[in-house]
């Protein structure tokens, strides 16, 4: 029995509020961590009228506009699942990677199960914040992306556009992995 190659997929979502089901996933952005030009992005029709005004203000998205422009969630999740399958293939294992992965994964998992009755990522996600904490010995309160960026010096910047943020967090993930494997890096600072 051969081991499956892990393909890390960086995923970011923008939502209308804090929990799936009552609030909507509005956009999905994803990229292959090691080939960040392999991307997926879509807008979704809202599943409810519930919205936290602050969540919408941060993203600049509108429920009304998404009702017209967004994909039906079943179509969006089918396209996302197909994209994951194309990137990963049948012999490899997709690994969900996120910055504050529990939040993003909860929406993606809910939508996959509600509309497709399956989730290609299974029931787990790799959290960049937790990886960074373990790699650096930092405290949880010091795992904000801005603090990671100050230390890791990524080229990209986050902007609350799901695809851009997925590519940004993929870069952070690559930098953390590179620093973990580089024996000369001193994370004790």
Summarize the helices and strands and which ones pair or pack:
Elements: E1 5-15, E2 25-32, E3 35-43, H1 53-59, H2 63-69, H3 73-88, E4 92-98, H4 101-116, E5 126-127, H5 128-136, H6 145-152, H7 162-181
Parallel strand pairs: 1-4, 4-5
Antiparallel strand pairs: 1-2, 2-3
Helix pairs in contact: 3-4, 5-7, 6-7
What would you give as the CATH superfamily? Ribonuclease H-like superfamily/Ribonuclease H
How many H/I helices?
7
- Low-confidence spans: none
CATH top level assignment? Alpha Beta
Radius of gyration from CA coordinates: 17 Å
The overall pLDDT average reads 94
Order of helices and strands: EEEHHHEHEHHH
Quaternary structure = single chain
Number of beta strands: 5
**Main sheet record:** 5 strands, mixed
CATH topology: Nucleotidyltransferase, domain 5
Domain Exonuclease: 7-182
Protein name: Exonuclease
GO cellular component, one term: cytosol
GO molecular function, one term: nucleic acid binding
């Amino acid at each position: 029995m051969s081991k499956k190659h892990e393909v890390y997929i960086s995923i970011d979502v923008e939502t209308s509020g804090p929990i799936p089901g009552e609030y909507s996933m509005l956009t999905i952005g994803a990229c292959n961590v090691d080939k960040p030009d392999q991307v997926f992005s879509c807008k979704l029709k809202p599943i409810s009228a519930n919205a936290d005004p602050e969540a919408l203000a941060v993203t600049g998205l509108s429920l009304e506009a998404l009702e017209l422009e967004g994909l039906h969630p079943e179509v969006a999740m089918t396209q996302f699942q197909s994209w994951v399958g194309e990137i990963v293939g049948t012999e490899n294992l997709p690994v969900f990677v996120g910055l504050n992965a529990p939040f993003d994964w909860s929406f993606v998992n809910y939508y996959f199960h509600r509309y497709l009755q399956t989730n290609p990522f299974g029931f787990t996600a790799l959290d960049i914040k937790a990886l960074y904490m373990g790699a650096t010995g930092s405290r949880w309160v010091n795992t904000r992306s801005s603090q990671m960026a100050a230390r890791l010096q990524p080229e990209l910047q986050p902007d609350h556009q799901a695809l851009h943020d997925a590519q940004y967090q993929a870069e952070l993930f690559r930098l953390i992995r590179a620093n973990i494997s580089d024996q000369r890096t001193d994370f004790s600072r």
